Amino acid sequence: MIAPKVSRTNSIQEIKDLEEPSNNLGDNQTTFYNIDTDRDNKTPKPALNFRSKVVEILDSYYMMCFMGVLSIWTLFGDDIRTAACTKSDDDTFYAVATACFSVFGFEFLVCCACKDKYIFSFYFWLDLVSTLSLIPDIGWMWDPIIGVDENDEGGESVYKQANQQSSFATSAAKVLRIVRLIRLIRIVRLYKSASSAIEKHESDSEDEEEVIIPKESQVGKRLSDLTIKRVIIIILCLLFILPFFDTEMYLTNYTSWDYGIQEIEAFKGNTDVATVINEYISYHEDDRRPIIYFIIVVPKIQLFYSWSSSTQISDLRYNEKHFATGDFSVAVFDLREDTKFAAQLNICQTIFICIVLTLGAIYFSKDAEDLVIKPIEKMVERVHFIAKNPISAAHKRHESAYDVILKQKKKFLCFKLKDNEDKAKFEIALLEDTIIKIGVLLALGFGEAGGAIIASNMEKGGDLELVKGNKIVAVFGFCDIRNFTDSTEELQEAVMVFVNEIARIVHSMVDTYHGAANKNIGDAFLLVWKFSEKDFAATNDGGIQANPDSMKAKYIPDLALFSFLKILAKINKDPVILKYREHTKLNLRMPNYEVKMGFGLHIGWAIEGAIGSQFKIDASYLSPHVNMASRFEAATKQYGVPLLFSGSLYDYLSPNVQAYCRHIDTVTVKGSILPIRIYTSDSDFSEFTPSKGRERTKQQSRHKRRILEKKLESETLKSYELYELSKEIQLMKKPFTREFYRVFADGMKGYIEGKWNDAKERFEECLKLRPRDGPSLTLLGVMSECDFEVPNDWKGYRVLTEK
Fold this sequence. Notes:
Shape: rod-shaped
Largest sheet: 9 strands, mixed
Radius of gyration: 44 Å
Organism: Blepharisma stoltei
Oligomer: single chain
Low-confidence stretches: 1-45, 152-160, 205-213, 408-424
CATH superfamily of the largest domain: Nucleotide cyclase, GGDEF domain
GO cellular component, one term: membrane
Distance between the termini: 29 Å
Transmembrane segments: 54-73, 93-114, 227-245, 291-308, 345-364
Mean pLDDT: 78
Main location: membrane
GO molecular function: monoatomic ion channel activity
CATH topology of the largest domain: Alpha-Beta Plaits
CATH class of the largest domain: Alpha Beta
């Protein structure tokens, strides 16, 4: 037997240089697949029909991005055309506008055909109006509709259309500005759908990890929809109604253009008419809005005069020229500077209205969302999370406790609470916290084994449904409080406090080192270290097989044994427990009383599930391997040691941890004909002193557990190093010398091989080194029953009897 190592690693580099231990994985061969069990357990999505597939494509992330780009272009494209380009570039812009109109029209028709309850809905009319509002941007379609002929070169045709175009140009520009702003409702659609599309895209982009995307509640959807509708209606009403209160809508401003035409016609019969015409032209020729064409025709007096600049009328758009007309004359002015400036203002106006529309949609419902909708959605999300995985939900609440405490401290130190706001939020916050507490209590009541029961029944609703059991592989631990009957009689009502103080240590240590408490049966506790399917698998012959690629299969067995040794240490140094050594009634009944416990450990398979009926259920594990752990705990009294575990578990311990273990017997138990090796990990508490009594909270335990898991998974820490670095374990192992282990190993070898006389000498020598060594006394007692004569049917093991 190799004595346990007591030296500590001196540097991080030495830790990294240590050889990685290899577990004994047994002889049975089992194929493992690195599968994501959570993904495999997901309910498959139902097959979509054609209409659903089309709607899914329309609402997809990439389609939303594409339609968003087109929507923004339609808002600013025509103004960019006017502000930055010439008439020769119009055809390009018309082509793009035609393409946008085709895409939006196609989308509108597809929505009508495939979306339920879309036709004649609010957004149906908005989409229809916004799509039709694109027609004015397409000159090929719009110009014939309004009767504008952009191909007129001037002359007589200009004179004939002067009155018509002069009155139309100004009013058309005003109308088009309003019509174009109707397209802002496409931005509303983009705003309404962007969040869900982005969330869906992010969810689909995750390959391995499941991402929980909070879903908008029905109340939130309804409130958001109503708010957006009202904001749209208000803004559209303002856009359409406010121009009717502008004098420009009813009156035409009298300008020098029109006044000059009237003066020229007043001089039409005068010989100075040519002088007046030249002054009129020279006055406006270098203006910001210069004259580019003039004609006067008076047939009765045979007056004909025509003038034109280098700028051709055909080079200007209909809204870039102004016709000043009289009875006999027409003057055309270049308004390109005005139209460019107006286009720039339109861009700014559109941006401003976009901001107003967005802020209006957000802030109109902000208070309701902050005070009611978001808390409700958060509660619904928590309920779904608890229903899906109640154990993880309980753990998550404690994992975030540190952050919550820090935030609360910062809030109280740095800010003065607003009474009205906090009171408004308090009721919903209280309700939310109650839901979380109910979930935590469910998880506490049912334990690890009850997660499937809670999840199944919360999702399905109705009466309690006892779900089918699930076969799992785990390390099972059983521990018991010694002399519990006597303690109960003396402590009376205080026995509950006594048990809970011990349970606090047991549960805390087990949880910190990746286990879970399952049953509390009076003086006994059932603890479980459960493996997933990718860590361990049950073989066809009733055994188990570890996955050689699984990290948990390597370190969880070490942690299970380590946690029981830590419990033993805490029981013998915790001041809360040590106070019972001075309890008067306990010492009168049991002199020199000490709180003692027995521990049994075994690894194997079990059926996890619910036991009971609709009146009362318990979530637990059924298996001969669970019973085996209980038998080992009971056998600790026979061997005089506080801890026993099976050879099956020993084989999965890392070699360095195996050095902390002692083989003390090989037996068969009731219900099994296969021999089982029994091991112990020795402990002596004679040199222990009381600790300071710092009590670790559940939040601290969960925090330590997360840190430990990260280190073990990343292999920055080896599980056997926990033993080497633990002062408590090194202290309890200190009295056991290498000489003692060597002599006992020789005695065990003689005992197994049937050389009982040699074994007797070795065990008696062990008792000289440690006079009260339980395993040595037990094996000497077994051999003495046969007068140290080996039975004829001896095969190296015996039947473990119950005493």
